[in-house]
Every structure is written in C-alpha cells, then in structure tokens.
C-alpha cells in the first residue's frame, strides 16, 4: 500500500513541480517591466517613466502582459471590453426582425460596425506594439485606419438621421458622404505619414524624418488627421445644435445627448493633445490614470452617447425622414464603408510593405542595438 501510494505520488509530484516551475517562469517573464531609459526612443511616452514592456517581446509575452500591470495594460482593456459592448449592440440590431432588409437601419448597422472595429484595432495595436519597432508602426497604422472607418461610420449615420431638417436634400447633403469617404483616405494617409514620412522616400527608421526626430510635428499631423474629418462630419450637427434658429432646426430630445457626446469628444481631443496629467507629474501616472487611458475611456463614453443620440434621432424622425430624406441605398451605406476599408487597407499595405519586405538589410532601431528587419 505504502509503495503504491509512493509510486502514484512520484508522477503527481513531478506534474506539480512542473506546474510550479511554469508559474514561476511565467511570473519571472511577466514581471520584467522596464523603465524609460531601457527602451528605445520610439517606444518612450511623454511623462511615463516606468512600466514599459520589453521592446522585443514575443506575441505570447504580449498577450500574457495583459494580465500583469504595465503602462499598456489599461490601454488594452479600456478598448477591448467596450468592443464586446458595441458588438452586443450590433448583434441586437442585426437580429431584430428585417434589420438587414430594412434600408432605414443600414446606416446604424454601419455605424455600430465601425464602433466595434476601432476599439478592437486599438486594443490589438496596444497589445502587440512591443514586438519590434516595425510591428509598433504597423499596429498603429491599422489603429489609424480603423479610426478613419469610425469617422465614416459617423458620417453615414449623420447623413441618414442627424442632418437638420433645413439641410435635408441640400447640395451639401448630396456631397456629404462622398467628401467623408475622401476624408477617410486623406486621414488614414496623413496619420500613417505622421509616423515615418512617405514609404520608399522617407523611410529610414534610424535617421531621417521620423516620430522620434520631430515628435511635435508628428503629433500635430496626427491630431489634424483625426480632427478635420471629425469636424467635417459634425458640421450639420454643430449647425443644428449651436447656430440654427427658427424653423427646420430639428430641436428634439436627441439634442441634449448630442451635446454630451460633443463635450466628451472635445475632452478626448484635449487629453490626446496635452498628455495631462502625466506631463505635470512624470512617473506618478505610469500605470493608472495617464492621459492615454483617460483618452480611451472618454472616447468610449463619447461613442456610447453618440450611439444613443443617433438611435434617438433615428426613432424620433423616422416617419418624416422616410418621406423627405434622400433614399438610403447600399452605395451610400455599406458600399461607401467597403470602399473606405479597401482603400485604407491599400494605404496601410503601402506604408507597411517597406517595413516588412523593403530590402534584406537590417537597421539598428534603438539605443540598445535592436534590429528591425526590412
Ligand atoms: Zn490608444
């Protein structure tokens, strides 16, 4: 009996030791965060002193780091969890009877789809951005493309439900979606350009135009790339909320929700542009409370209010818009979004290919002598 239990306990003990060893190894791997002086400049963030992941992490390390507190952990979760919220909203509308056959709901479906894509792309970008300098650039190219799609999703839903009565069927209304599509192309290109300049011409991760060489210009270009499509999309809404007087202003219960969304959008832009609060107290907000996390949270709450306002307008104005507004077609909803996705993917490929396959040379990308294969 004793010998049998001893016989059985040996492999169990070996398994137990194996598990303990794996856990210790995992803990050792996942607790090795670096400070700002240990990572290349391309990975450094203003006002963030510690909590950096290794700049050559494996994909597995990147995923495991989500369960450890680094300066990116909350950046990932603040967009990953809301993705499921918007996906749930999208599925709810999709599963409603006749949603796919009712053209009136298509703009809302496109908007909700874009609301799922942008936080998902962002959380993936934040997760895998520390695999290498190249992966960091490519991850954020996708992030920018997804933001452009969200901008177009907003425009498509505004065109269908939010335009003030006075502007419905105007010349501006007729050109609104085509211009919004054009804006997404310019926005994706400009935001990608803001990282490394033009592919094939400027790309030299070490020396020439890069985010690290002219961070202020990069930041200004990136803010411009996101702000101008947002401002264009919101021209009809701003007119309706702040300028319109008299008839045709569409003053309904959705207006106050639109105001909430607008205030949050400006707060989001302010946080992105100023790097507050960590700029005032470098090192204090490395893990919790830095501007990028607050920026993510404000963006998501803003998107939630935007969705509520769009839904309110959609329901309140349905009977009237079905008579007066231009017909909702595949071309001015899913078709436009599809064009945007294809062109944005093309632009991202154009900006990414030189990083992946440009030449067989390797370039030093960091003070530590890490290599980035072209
Ligand atoms: Zn982010």
Automatic annotation (TrEMBL):
<feature type="transmembrane region" description="Helical">
    <location>
        <begin position="103"/>
        <end position="121"/>
    </location>
</feature>
<keyword id="KW-1133">Transmembrane helix</keyword>
<comment type="similarity">
    <text>Belongs to the ADIPOR family.</text>
</comment>
<keyword id="KW-0862">Zinc</keyword>
<dbReference type="GO" id="GO:0038023">
    <property type="term" value="F:signaling receptor activity"/>
</dbReference>
<feature type="transmembrane region" description="Helical">
    <location>
        <begin position="337"/>
        <end position="357"/>
    </location>
</feature>
<keyword id="KW-0812">Transmembrane</keyword>
<feature type="transmembrane region" description="Helical">
    <location>
        <begin position="220"/>
        <end position="239"/>
    </location>
</feature>
<keyword id="KW-0479">Metal-binding</keyword>
<feature type="binding site">
    <location>
        <position position="292"/>
    </location>
    <ligand>
        <name>Zn(2+)</name>
    </ligand>
</feature>
<feature type="transmembrane region" description="Helical">
    <location>
        <begin position="175"/>
        <end position="193"/>
    </location>
</feature>
<dbReference type="GO" id="GO:0046872">
    <property type="term" value="F:metal ion binding"/>
</dbReference>
<dbReference type="Pfam" id="PF03006">
    <property type="entry name" value="HlyIII"/>
</dbReference>
<dbReference type="GO" id="GO:0016020">
    <property type="term" value="C:membrane"/>
</dbReference>
<protein>
    <submittedName>
        <fullName>Membrane progestin receptor gamma-B-like</fullName>
    </submittedName>
</protein>
<feature type="transmembrane region" description="Helical">
    <location>
        <begin position="259"/>
        <end position="276"/>
    </location>
</feature>
<feature type="transmembrane region" description="Helical">
    <location>
        <begin position="141"/>
        <end position="163"/>
    </location>
</feature>
<feature type="binding site">
    <location>
        <position position="296"/>
    </location>
    <ligand>
        <name>Zn(2+)</name>
    </ligand>
</feature>
<dbReference type="InterPro" id="IPR004254">
    <property type="entry name" value="AdipoR/HlyIII-related"/>
</dbReference>
<feature type="binding site">
    <location>
        <position position="126"/>
    </location>
    <ligand>
        <name>Zn(2+)</name>
    </ligand>
</feature>
<keyword id="KW-0472">Membrane</keyword>
């Amino acid at each position: 009996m004793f010998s049998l239990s001893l016989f059985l306990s040996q492999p169990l003990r070996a398994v137990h030791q194996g598990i303990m060893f794996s856990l210790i190894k995992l803990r050792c791997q996942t607790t090795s965060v670096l400070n700002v002086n240990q990572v290349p400049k391309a990975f450094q963030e203003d006002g963030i002193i510690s909590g950096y992941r290794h700049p050559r992490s494996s994909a597995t390390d990147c995923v495991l780091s989500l369960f450890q507190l680094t300066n990116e952990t909350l950046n990932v979760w603040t967009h990953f969890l809301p993705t499921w919220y918007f996906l749930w909203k999208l599925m709810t509308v999709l599963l409603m009877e006749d949603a796919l056959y009712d053209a009136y709901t298509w703009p809302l479906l496109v908007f909700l789809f874009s609301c799922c894509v942008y936080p998902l792309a962002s959380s993936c970008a934040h997760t895998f951005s520390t695999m290498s300098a190249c992966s960091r650039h490519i991850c954020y190219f996708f992030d920018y493309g997804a933001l452009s799609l969200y901008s177009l999703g907003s425009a498509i839903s505004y065109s269908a439900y939010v335009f003030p009565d006075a502007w419905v069927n105007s010349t501006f209304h007729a050109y609104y979606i085509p211009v919004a599509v054009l804006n997404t192309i310019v926005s994706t290109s400009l935001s990608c350009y803001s990282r490394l300049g033009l592919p094939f011409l400027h790309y030299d991760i070490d020396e020439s135009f890069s985010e690290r060489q002219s961070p202020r210009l990069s930041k200004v270009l990136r803010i411009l790339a996101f702000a101008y499509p947002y401002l264009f999309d919101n021209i009809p809404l701003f007119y309706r909320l702040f300028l319109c007087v008299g008839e045709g202003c569409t003053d309904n219960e959705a207006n106050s929700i639109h105001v909430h969304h607008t205030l949050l959008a400006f707060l989001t832009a302010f946080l992105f542009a100023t790097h507050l609060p960590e700029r005032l107290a470098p090192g204090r907000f490395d893990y919790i409370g830095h501007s990028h996390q607050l920026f993510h949270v404000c963006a998501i709450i803003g998107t939630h209010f935007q969705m509520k306002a769009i839904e309110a307008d959609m329901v309140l104005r349905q009977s009237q818009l079905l008579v007066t507004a231009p017909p909702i077609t595949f071309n001015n909803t899913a078709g436009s979004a599809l064009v945007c996705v294809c062109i944005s993917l093309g632009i991202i490929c154009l900006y990414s290919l030189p990083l992946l396959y440009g030449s067989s040379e390797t370039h030093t990308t960091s003070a530590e002598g890490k290599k980035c294969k072209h």
